[in-house]
Amino acid sequence: xxxQVVSTNIAETFAPMSARRLLIFGGxxxxxxxxxxGDIFAVFVLHQNGGQTGRAILAASEAVNAxxxxxxxxxxxxxxxxxxxxxxxxxxHVHMTDAGYLALxxxxxxxxxxxxxxxxxxxxxxxxxxGLLLPVGIFLIHYVALAYSPFAVIGxxxxxxxxxxxxxxxxxxxxxxxxxxxxxxxxxxREPELPTxxxxxRRTLMSGGALLILAGFLYGAWYAGVDxxxxxxxxxxxxxxxxxxxxxxxxxxVVAVADYGSLAAERTVKIAAHSxxxxxGLLAMLLSFVQPYVGLSERxxxxxxxxxxxxxxxxxxxxxxEMNLGLVAAAIADIGGLLVIIALTGMLVGVLRYSGRLDxxxxxxx
Amino acid sequence: MSTGRGVLVMGGLxxxxxxxxxxxHYAIFVEHQTLNRMGGSLAQAFLSAAQRNMVDAHGxxxxxxxxxxxxxRQVDVHSHWIGLAMVLIVLGGVLDNVAFxxxxxxxxxVALVAGSFAFPLGVxxxxxxxxxxxxxxLALLGSAIVTIALGAVAWGFARSRA
Lengths: 366, 162
Description:
The structure holds 2 protein chains of 2 kinds. Helix content of chain A is about 80%, strand content about 0%. Chain A is mostly helical. Chain A has 2 domains: about 10-195, no CATH class; about 200-360, Four Helix Bundle (Hemerythrin (Met), subunit A) (Up-down Bundle), CATH 1.20.120. Chain B has one domain (about 5-155). Chain B has 4 helices and no strands. Chain B has helices at about 5-50, 55-95, 100-125, 135-160. Chain B is elongated, with a radius of gyration of 21 Å. The chains are: A mainly alpha, B mainly alpha. The interface between A and B is large, with 73 and 61 residues.
């Protein structure tokens, strides 16, 4: 196994336009962009989309009652479109933030990847390109649909998304190859490791992140054990009740549709709470590595750390409370997400300030 | 780089690539067809009910539920493998700060990698035989191992600060 250089100078670990710098900038930008998209989606699309889907299912029930098969078909085309819009927007948010997380992870790994600096930089560029095109492709799936596509069910936007996904896999495999070379003791690029100072910001982000991830794991296990199968059985039963009531004209379809909407909302908020608390924990741990490159005063660095952790706790807790408190909780959860975005942007500005100072060198002091 | 850190980073990379390859395969060959089948079953249920054929309607709802059971787990495998891979790589960066002996740290790393692989594998095996005991046990065991190992990491962090 290769030995590793531990730098005494932070600047050496953040060379201008190096793969690491590209991945850190690009990673934070992708995460902030993905979260901003998620917040906009939550405020302007999610609830409206859910309401439209509920109304469409009610219309389908009424069409069943009226024995109108043609209307049923039309309503289901509409429901398919609504579900596709909802699904692609959730996937855009998830894939953009996850590509950002992976970019930051690759930045951490760079000292252990035995490839030439030029190749590392090329791979970093390819990864960020794929990380941007993948969510863009997913977002466009709903709008481009099958226009001009030679395939039966896959449109050009899906082709773009899948190609970008393949590009990410290629980069990941190439980085893995470089990592294997490191383990086999091949000469490394002598790139220094990330600084290892245990500052207050780093320790707080690391501990807070580990606790958030642990909380997310425990909640996920509880959800899988207690709710998952119950929800699946309840959904099938509600749908059968809805059809029975509509067909017999007993008039219980509205209640069944309301039950269905309530179940969908309960499932969504529980899964969202589970995934967000883990993702924010991961983000906090990743950002702990970036802290030496945040060129801000101690006071401001601590403010961003506290804001990030507060927002990371508020969002999942209030997402869960949406079932009890309704839109008030949803608004507070959105504010939690906004706090995380603000903290992330603050840190990104700090990294930009740091790199600017670094690149100017002695002129910066003047 | 210590053995434990190497196990975590390498395990994380392999798991991330596995999760992405599965996701790519799923997106190209399975997802669209599954969504079409799911939507088709639900629409068929309502159409059958409109024609007052309630046996077919209930059968279509059961088909919808069965397809959705598989769909939820197939998507979960993709997201959990990649999510857990990212956790592994991050922990690979900080494992040396966990206040246990190198041998214990290596075992924690091995447990994290093994649990992270086994838990989603158990979930996807549930689609082979719905409600299968072996698959459910594997998923349960995998998630328990990951959670306990992560708890050990958090405890190790706490010890290092004391």
